[in-house]
């Protein structure tokens, strides 16, 4: 393992490598690595000689071993029909092919692995649904007692998936931010899982795979808490610095108009602000204040990308088009990236190689209804 320490991106404070979720300044933390050690390991054991599994990126994870259900290495599907219509070389990264049908499994493999290495007996997390379902499944494999706090408006299909894995479900009044506060309050008694430092490191593998599968010029990322955006950008930078990626892609952040903290900060050039109450049909990206908002914003800025907001109606239209034109059934949050692309495709050079992340399966939220925004 090449993890070497912990640093706060907000204030720069450093900590030794040990389970910790917040800086003294209350900022989200980031794990640092010994890249010289990783470079040496890759010379001895190149990626091209490793099996096409999540574990091929083990040198970039902050745990000695993963708790795995076969996550990662998801299909990259050519969007032949929509790409032709938009004048782009378009590909969809189908994250709904993960074991619990969303990209969350990548982070859970590392997070639950960290809990096992810390000899935890209990884990706790907050979730709008997908993370809870993922954590519950991985905790079950590891033999850990799991508690999941969810907002009152979480989808029933996702709650049933959480309960079916044996987790304790606690519904709270309020949104995701309230649920996260309650989960954090339990962290002295349980190993806290969620959109924190360990999950980001597991989620990086999306970026590694895109670098190996495509080397895209543009990557379109739906943004809720911002962890996926921050993780993908960190992965690209790591591969670039190690000579595994020729050129960094530019990132496009897509947020729902009713949950647009990161996009607003980028579009209006101000600091991140807390929404009074986020509201969108895409519940998986409905967040009052994103835990990884700072790093997500930095990722877009450093990549020379941009942000776009989409309405619920645009999200649901994109969801229908994705299934009818490309055969992919996505939940609303999973189609948000395409909704953003449909809105800004004329800003991209014709023929650009574009990867659009489809983050979760439509069966997780099969009958959404647009909300007023």
Description:
With 373 residues, the chain is α/β, with parallel strands linked by helices. The chain has three domains: 3-51, no CATH class; 76-102 and 199-364, Rossmann fold; 104-196, Rossmann fold. Helix content is 38%, strand content 17%. The protein has helices at residues 35-44, 80-86, 104-117, 130-142, 156-164, 176-185, 197-203, 205-213, 227-241, 261-268, 293-302, 312-326, 332-344, and strands at residues 3-7, 14-15, 30-33, 76-78, 89-94, 122-126, 145-151, 168-172, 191-192, 218-222, 250-256, 306-310, 353-358. The strands form three sheets. Strands 4-5-13-10-11-12 form a six-stranded mixed sheet, sandwiched between helices. A four-stranded parallel sheet has the order 8-7-6-9, with helices on both faces. Strand 1 and strand 2 (14-15) form a beta hairpin. The N and C termini lie far apart (46 Å).
Indicate the CATH topology of the largest domain.
Rossmann fold
Rg (CA only): 19 Å
Please give the order of strands in the largest beta sheet: 4-5-13-10-11-12
Strand content: 15-25%
Continuous helix count: 13
Low-confidence stretches: none
- What is the overall silhouette? globular
Q: Mean pLDDT, rounded to whole units? A: 95
Structural class: alpha/beta
Order of helices and strands: EEEHEHEHEHEHEHEHHEHEHHEHHE
Largest sheet: 6 strands, mixed
> What top-tier CATH class of the largest domain fits best?
Alpha Beta
Give the total of domains.
3
Q: What is the number of E strands?
A: 13
Helix content: 25-40%
């Amino acid at each position: 393992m090449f993890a070497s320490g912990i640093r706060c991106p907000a204030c720069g404070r450093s900590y030794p490598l040990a389970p910790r979720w917040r800086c003294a300044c209350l900022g989200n933390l980031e794990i640092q690595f010994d890249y010289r050690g990783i470079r040496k390991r890759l010379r001895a054991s190149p990626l091209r000689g490793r099996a096409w599994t999540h574990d091929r990126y083990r040198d970039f994870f902050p745990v000695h071993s993963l708790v795995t259900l076969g996550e990662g290495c998801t299909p990259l599907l050519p969007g032949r029909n929509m790409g032709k219509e938009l004048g782009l070389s378009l590909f969809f990264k189908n994250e709904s092919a993960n074991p619990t049908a969303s990209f969350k499994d990548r982070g859970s493999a590392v997070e639950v692995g960290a809990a096992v290495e810390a000899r935890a007996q209990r884990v706790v997390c907050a979730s709008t649904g997908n993370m809870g379902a993922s954590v519950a499944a991985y905790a079950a494999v590891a033999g850990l007692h799991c508690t999941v706090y969810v907002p009152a408006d979480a989808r029933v299909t996702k709650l049933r998936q959480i309960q079916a894995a044996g987790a304790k479900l606690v519904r709270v009044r309020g949104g995701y931010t309230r649920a996260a506060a309650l989960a954090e309050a339990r962290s002295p008694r349980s190993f806290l899982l969620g959109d924190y430092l360990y999950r980001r490191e597991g989620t990086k593998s999306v970026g590694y795979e895109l670098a190996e599968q495509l080397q895209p010029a543009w990557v379109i990322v739906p943004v809720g808490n911002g962890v996926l955006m921050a993780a993908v950008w960190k992965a690209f930078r790591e591969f670039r610095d190690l000579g595994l990626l020729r050129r960094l892609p530019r990132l496009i952040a897509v947020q729902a108009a009713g949950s647009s903290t990161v996009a607003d900060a980028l579009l209006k050039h101000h600091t991140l602000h807390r929404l009074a109450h986020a509201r969108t049909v895409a519940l998986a990206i409905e967040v009052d204040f994103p835990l990884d908002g700072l790093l997500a914003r930095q990722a877009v800025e450093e990549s020379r990308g941009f942000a776009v907001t989409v309405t619920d109606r645009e999200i649901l239209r994109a969801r229908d088009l994705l299934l009818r034109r490309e055969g992919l059934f996505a939940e609303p949050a999973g189609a948000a990236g395409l909704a953003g692309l449909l809105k800004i495709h004329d800003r991209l050079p014709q023929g650009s190689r574009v990867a659009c992340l489809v983050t979760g399966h439509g069966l997780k939220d099969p009958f959404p209804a647009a909300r007023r925004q």
